[in-house]
Amino acid sequence: MLKETRAAVQDALDKKMTLEQMKEKKILDSWKKYSGDFISEDVFLETVYNSLTGQKNGKFIKHN
């Protein structure tokens, strides 16, 4: 799952998509069954995106 989601985000980055475009297109929708109370699909996407781009947004995300 991790390799596949990382590859999906990398593919979107290679296509010059922004984070917002990735969210709108729901590129991780195939893995939505893993989304839940602990981490949402969008937060996971942001995490992978930040990891691949080296961005650090400084936001702390409190989980349940």
Protein architecture, described:
By secondary structure, this protein is mostly helical. The protein has one domain (2-53). 52% of the residues lie in helices and 0% in strands. It has helices at residues 2-14, 19-25, 41-53. It is globular and about 30 Å long. The chain starts with a helix and ends in an 11-residue tail after the last helix. 12% of the residues are buried.
Map the helices and strands.
Elements: H1 2-14, H2 19-25, H3 41-53
Summarize the structure.
With 64 residues, the protein is mainly α.
SSE string, helices as H and strands as E: HHH
Portion in helices: 40-55%
What kind of sheet is the major sheet?
Answer: none
- From the helix content, strand content and strand pairing, which structural class follows? mainly alpha
Strand content: under 5%
How many domains, as an integer?
1
Inertia-based shape: globular
Tell me the distance between the termini: 22 Å
Question: Averaging pLDDT over every residue, what do you get?
Answer: 87
Count all strands and give the number: 0
**Uncertain residue ranges:** none
Q: How many helices in DSSP terms?
A: 3
Radius of gyration: 11 Å
